[in-house]
Design goal:
The chain is of the alpha+beta class. The chain contains 4 helices and 5 strands, in the order H-E-E-H-E-H-H-E-E.
């Protein structure tokens, strides 16, 4: 059985205090449309001056010519065109599965690798002096004609013969 309880001035003060506390400690948030990892790379260039041509040399020696655009990430661009670069960590510098060998003519045009990239490259098999992580190469106009070769082997956690898919 419920009884009516008289709330005096103390109860009203407590109620006002809780409302005030809620206003001060409530956080609002907004949402926006999500682009997945590499979503930018799935968009075509809007003009010819944005085009950056890239040549991927696959493990079997065949070449795949790709029209990227300024700002594209080399690894995600490869995913768009079904080139077998895994990228297990989704460009978070936690693996070396997107290891590529950059043509010497273009290596010096790239920004220097950060320490985290160097650490991950130390784990990559078939390392060369021009090795880089594909996830850390962002296309710029002076990289037009860039040529990268996939190393003969990579270190990943899949069974032999698995073809990696974009995440």
């Amino acid at each position: 059985m419920w009884r009516a309880v008289r709330v005096g001035s103390w109860g009203r003060k407590l109620s006002r205090g809780l409302r005030s506390w809620r206003r001060e400690h409530t956080r609002s948030f907004t949402t926006s449309a999500a682009l997945g990892h590499g979503g930018f790379e799935w968009q075509d260039p809007t003009s010819e001056d944005q085009v950056v041509n890239v040549v991927y040399v696959r493990r079997d020696g065949t070449e795949t010519h790709v029209r990227g655009k300024v700002g594209d990430n080399l690894m995600y661009l490869a995913h768009r065109h079904d080139i077998e670069i895994e990228g297990a960590c989704e460009a978070s510098l936690a693996c070396s599965t997107c290891h590529v060998i950059v043509d010497g003519r273009f290596f010096d045009r790239l920004p220097e690798a950060v320490e985290e990239e160097e650490d991950m490259l130390d784990l990559a098999p078939s390392l060369t002096p021009t090795s880089r992580l594909g996830c850390q190469i962002v296309l710029t106009p002076h990289l037009d004609g860039l040529r990268v070769t996939l190393p003969p082997i990579t270190r990943n956690f899949y069974v032999d013969g698995h073809t990696p898919k974009p995440h």
